[in-house]
């Protein structure tokens, strides 16, 4: 009987939406499913909020609509209507240059905001880093990023596709925060995948390995740095005289963050991981693992000395668009494994920051 009642409510809400009466539809849905347990409730509520956002042109309303549709897809990934509406909304928000989250920026035009971090000693930095690393799953969950990429394949066909990535904030809070801050500030816009090592019959690379990008400074693999001060200056906490670095004494283009490679995440198909030039030199560069590659030698294992053998932090996984990663891994490359035609990250849109929100769904309005 309860199922029949809620199904009836959904039909009534659909009729109201067809007439453009989104507020009445929201009211009905709120009463019928206050906890937002049903995917259909969330889909219809997302549709109603989308209609409201189109009328108000409010970034907040667009974000609320996106959150509801995203949750609907999570509850029922096979709901084609929810997926279609969500993708349509993402495209509309991208055109309007509306980010998917109001996650606060800690940098303005590349300059950190004052946060009381001046002259912090190395011991305190270690405590803060450890505290962030040990955040419980009660606070963090997987976030989400949508990466739009363009490239020309070996047959001369141009592609414009999106790759959706789950960001494992509970396991790698520093790296996910850094990735989000860089994406939100537009640092990844129009940056190329400067290094592609894949199954390319036209080169010496016969085994897929990875596609690497994120160097927003040089687009060559020689630049890029952390979004904010994490206590490491090109992998070091102190200078040659033993004095602790601070954000004032370390050049911004040398800012790096410590590895979180002991988080239990391993390299597999679709893994997003931090590229670096040595222990604790992680910055803005990252790579994604194509199908058929499993670079286990980059994983941390008990007893492995990461100062001598490279350990890389895995902090994300491709959830949709792995076929595009695999296609990029096959583009023709030249010297230094650089694609002959640019593979460009047009944008990275954060659709979920991975910070849990305990607010009931109906309180969005």
What are the key terms here?
365 residues, alpha+beta, Serine Threonine Protein Phosphatase 5, Tetratricopeptide repeat, nine-stranded antiparallel sheet, two-stranded antiparallel ribbon, 13 strands, 17% strand
Nutshell version of this structure?
The protein has 365 residues and is α+β, with helices and mostly antiparallel strands. It folds into two domains: 2-98, Serine Threonine Protein Phosphatase 5, Tetratricopeptide repeat (Alpha Horseshoe), CATH 1.25.40.10; 107-352, Cyclophilin (Beta Barrel). It contains eight helices and 13 strands.
- Specify the biggest β-sheet: 9 strands, antiparallel
Q: Judging by the overall fold, what is the CATH architecture of the largest domain? A: Beta Barrel
- β-strand percent reads 15-25%
Distance between the termini: 28 Å
Write out the CATH superfamily name of the largest domain. Answer: Cyclophilin-like
State the name of the first-level CATH class of the largest domain.
Mainly Beta
Overall pLDDT score: 87
Helix content: 25-40%
What does this structure look like?
- This protein has 365 residues and is α+β, with helices and mostly antiparallel strands.
- It has two domains: 2-98, Serine Threonine Protein Phosphatase 5, Tetratricopeptide repeat (Alpha Horseshoe); 107-352, Cyclophilin (Beta Barrel), CATH 2.40.100.10.
- 30% of the residues lie in helices and 17% in strands.
- Strands 5-13-3-4-12-10-11-7-6 form a nine-stranded antiparallel sheet. Strands 1-2 form a two-stranded antiparallel ribbon.
- A hairpin with a 2-residue loop joins β1 and β2 (111-112).
- α2 (22-32) runs antiparallel to α3, α3 (39-56) packs parallel to α5 (80-95) and α4 runs antiparallel to α5 (80-95).
- The longest helix is centred in the first third of the chain and has 18 residues, at 39-56.
- The protein is globular.
- 45% of the residues are buried.
- The model is unreliable at 103-109, 113-123, 132-136 and 200-205 (pLDDT under 50).
